[in-house]
């Protein structure tokens, strides 16, 4: 047979190129004017390293990790990730803002534990007697006690321990049964109760429902420590500095205000929300001042708070929290960014359950001319047409500023169009999705669908202390290695959009974007230089 | 605070209903005129049972199945599925056509094995000595020998066995080492070599790349048996009858024509493709006649063949296969439906590798006025922007009639639009995707995205003998339980579209659709009746 004419082949290739172009037309990282020569050069370096390491690192065999691949299950893959050159490079990247993280899960669990051990006011108890077989499934409870509190117990692990009795933390640690590992076993047990292990995520708790149980428990444990005022300030400070260390220049954590009071230094549970926010505000100012004094003001723009409560309260209770949020907004207008309802959407109340309250609130802030939007979690589910999935309709109809997770958004062509048109950004948390079993691994995550449909995305870590994905480097890494489409333009767009779609306002946002751009240029130069040195 | 006015609430609810309607507007199962009262009633029954069984069956604990949930990993969930009332009902459903199945994987492995044991001409060998530790990873090879063939070996498992030597099948079975399980161990080993076990899919081979290795091996083993002429006819017959038994009224298997000759009854490998297709044709006619004689002609419309070869051949070799396919089409115009290239898209050649050959072929059949379309596998991958993912562009540009799998299509907004507009149906194989680790379980499968974007779908089983999803009942079951949107309209649309988008022509298709519709009405009546009896 004769060859197809070269013109037929040429025509086909032109058609193909045009089709690919159309297919990616909506992507926010495909605005061609924005790619500088420097970025092109750095992008080529990144892509080459990715291809090389897919072979040299991800195709090699690793002890005790039977199936390595780029974008693999994070909890088992992490030890390989940190060995890569790509990870080292990304750790230097200016990440922009962190727009989806739950405050009580933002600081390394070991660090929180070291803060707790320094507080003699803290006591520990368990609801059952500790035995080796059930140790890892038994939860510690923490409570800061007044100075005059007297405990009859000095040990948590003895036969004589009466469940529910409070034991001084350091006494409990020092007397911890050697059969349970002694003080090291004690530390491992506590830290394990605040984190999700690979064995849990991929074995014992390998469904969305079961992992949520473990997940909720990690918060119960951590909050017993973080909500003690002397720890709280240190905790927030560490969150900010470790974020800065990772290249994050702005944070917008969700703070759970469900509990109406936190515990003060004197062991009294009487620190109200206003006092709590004032502490937060003070730490943010302190860090900003310190950064400025070091000439590093570009590295930290600030922080705001998304007020959150949990979606198991009654509609009447919600009214109290909405009022409380509004009062805080009036007291700290520069700090309160929005309102959210958090918790497992699959088992707790949908937004429609609170419809009257939410509509009324929306009307009220509108009338009062206050900028206090909803920033709802919605669609964090595998359900199709379930209440959790349908929360997406309500989040959008109620005017949500962004969507937390929006994992099931990709099922909804009309909603993707609305998010694109109304510029509702999705707070996408790749590693969180893998740990919570919404997706088996990064290559199965719907992020490429979201990006190809032009929906803005702010990449987020969600609960880094629980999953171990501290900072944003891990999440950016997973995105970059799981797609051949993703490159430096993608990372740039994600980082830039995390500022663009943040709650920063007017000139604040301009300053943040300008500072970020300057750092991005330095990052590109660093990539190219690191390649020359290699 | 005052309540939002009831009109504000009403307005919200109307907006919400309208948004949901728009969101699902493209779905092919939402054409409202088609839902009869009978179907509405039956749908309510199905939905009620689904809700009940989600609780009574899927939330209960099951021995050795730690995490049951609707749509769970098929290989472990199967034993629960068969206990449900929903499965029993779906087994009676008229399924329409089976448009994506590889012939050598369409008959229960145990049945194939019983056919093999009845053939004294068949010999077996292994490439290494069998020991307990490596038994399950050692592959048996089969070969039909001429009558005068003499083997020096009577046993496969003795110390004296020389790897590569052919042993008569029954002798090998009868003499199989008791330490390896004797004849039962022999049977288990062979059948295990043709199927994927839960331990393999979710443990030892838990990545797409590793499962493909095992998968390829199952075909190597099975083809040693299916491509022996006396077995081949029985095999095709059993495929047809077991499909009919499951409510499938038309099949369009892909047959792998890579090997140019199959082995005849005399042990000579000299049965060419024309003779092979003639045998297939004869069996189809025989079954049609028998069904007609029983007054059951509505239950079996017929079968066509999609000619396939493997995407590791050279472009020059492809020319031979394209010529061969065209010659078969001319000899059996009623039987040859199209042409495909099969095999692991992630590791073998992309369509672009064969571009010249494929374009030339397309031009040629067009010029000759022959209806012989491509029906390509494409996008059966987790890759984003990889060659396997990009096969979708080429499949569509080359005019594919349907797309086999198209798993990554959901990433491509423009291609989804093209498939919808040009009515290119996707052959979606849910259970295959779970077994091949493209998706962790059914709730994570992209089918809802495909349906919500109005892309036509033909639900298929792919390799039922390898995965154990014989017929189509299992696949329909998994689709129904993993979505609250899916109901009887969805099943009806999927079944109907499997005829609509088949290679049946003109009046054939009309007959098939008419017959199917009558059976669907009976199925609805059966559902309602079964509810009354319950």
Q: Work out the largest interface and the residue count of each chain.
A: A-B, 62 and 62 residues
How far apart the termini of chain A lie comes to 51 Å
Number of helices, counting only DSSP H or I runs of 4 residues or more of chain A = 21
Strand elements of chain A, count: 15
What is the CATH top level name of the largest domain in chain A?
Alpha Beta
Main pleated sheet of chain A: 4 strands, parallel
Strand order of the largest sheet of chain A: 12-13-14-15
Q: Which superfamily, in CATH terms, is the homologous superfamily of the largest domain in chain A?
A: Metal-dependent hydrolases
- Based on CA atoms alone, the radius of gyration of chain A comes out at 24 Å
What key attributes describe this structure?
globular; 534 residues; alpha/beta; homodimer; 4-stranded parallel beta sheet; 2 domains; 49% helix; TIM Barrel; 3-stranded parallel beta sheet
Topology:
2 copies of one chain form a homodimer.
Chain A: H1 6-23, H2 37-56, H3 74-81, H4 85-90, E1 96-98, H5 109-117, E2 122-125, E3 141-144, E4 167-168, H6 169-174, H7 182-193, H8 198-204, H9 208-226, H10 229-245, E5 248-251, E6 254-256, E7 262-263, E8 269-271, H11 273-293, E9 302-303, E10 305-310, H12 315-331, E11 336-342, H13 355-368, E12 377-378, H14 387-397, E13 402-405, H15 413-422, E14 425-428, H16 430-435, H17 447-452, E15 457-459, H18 464-467, H19 473-481, H20 488-500, H21 506-533
Parallel strand pairs in A: 1-5, 5-9, 6-10, 10-11, 12-13, 13-14, 14-15
Antiparallel strand pairs in A: 2-3, 2-4, 7-8
Helix pairs in contact in A: 2-21, 10-11, 12-13, 20-21
Protein name (chains A, B): Adenosine deaminase-like growth
């Amino acid at each position: 047979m004769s060859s197809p004419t070269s013109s037929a082949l040429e025509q086909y290739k032109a058609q193909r190129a045009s089709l690919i172009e159309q297919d990616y037309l909506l992507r926010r990282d495909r605005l061609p004017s924005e790619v500088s020569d420097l970025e092109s050069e750095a992008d080529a370096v990144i892509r080459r390293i990715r291809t090389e390491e897919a072979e040299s690192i991800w195709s090699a065999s690793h002890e005790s990790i039977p199936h390595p691949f780029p974008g693999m299950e994070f909890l088992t893959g992490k030890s390989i990730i940190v060995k890569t050159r790509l990870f080292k490079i990304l750790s230097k990247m200016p990440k922009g803002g962190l727009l989806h993280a739950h405050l009580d899960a933002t600081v390394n669990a070991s660090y929180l534990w070291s803060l707790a051990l320094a507080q003699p006011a803290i006591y520990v108890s368990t609801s059952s007697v500790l035995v080796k077989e059930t140790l890892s499934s038994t939860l510690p409870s923490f409570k800061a006690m007044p100075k005059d509190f007297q405990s009859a117990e000095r040990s948590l692990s003895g036969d004589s321990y009466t469940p529910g009795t409070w034991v001084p933390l350091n006494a409990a640690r020092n007397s911890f049964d050697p059969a349970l590992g002694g003080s090291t076993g004690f530390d491992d047990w506590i830290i394990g109760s605040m984190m999700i292990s690979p064995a849990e995520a991929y074995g014992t708790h390998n469904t969305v429902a079961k992992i949520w149980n473990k997940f909720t428990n990690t918060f119960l444990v951590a909050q017993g420590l973080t909500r003690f005022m002397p720890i709280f300030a240190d905790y927030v400070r560490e969150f900010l500095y470790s974020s800065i260390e990772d290249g994050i220049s702005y944070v917008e954590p969700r703070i759970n205000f469900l509990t109406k009071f936190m515990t003060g230094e004197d062991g009294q549970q009487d620190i109200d929300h206003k006092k709590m926010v004032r502490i937060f505000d003070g730490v943010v100012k302190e860090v900003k001042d310190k950064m400025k004094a070091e000439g590093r003001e570009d590295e930290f723009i600030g922080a705001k708070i998304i007020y959150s409560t949990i979606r198991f309260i009654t509609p009447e209770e919600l009214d109290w929290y909405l009022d409380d949020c509004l009062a805080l907004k009036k007291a700290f207008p520069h700090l309160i960014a929005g309102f959210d309802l958090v918790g497992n959407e699959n088992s707790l109340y949908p937004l429609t359950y609170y419809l009257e309250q939410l509509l009324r609130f929306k009307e009220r802030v509108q009338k009062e001319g206050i900028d206090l939007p909803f920033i709802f979690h919605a669609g964090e589910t595998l359900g199709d047409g379930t209440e959790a999935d349908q929360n997406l309709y309500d989040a959008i109809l109620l005017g949500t500023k962004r969507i937390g997770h929006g994992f099931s958004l990709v099922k909804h062509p009309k909603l993707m169009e609305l998010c694109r048109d109304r510029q509702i950004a999705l707070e996408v948390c790749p590693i969180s999705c893998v740990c919570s079993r919404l997706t088996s691994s990064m290559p199965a995550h719907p992020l490429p669908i979201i990006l190809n449909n032009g929906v803005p995305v702010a990449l987020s870590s969600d609960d880094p202390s629980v999953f171990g994905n501290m900072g944003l480097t891990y999440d950016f890494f997973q995105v970059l290695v799981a797609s051949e489409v993703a490159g430096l333009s993608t990372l740039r767009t994600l980082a830039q959009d995390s500022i663009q779609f943040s709650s920063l306002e007017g000139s604040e946002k301009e300053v943040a974007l300008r500072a970020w751009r300057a750092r991005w240029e330095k990052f590109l130069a660093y990539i190219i230089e690191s390649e020359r040195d290699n």
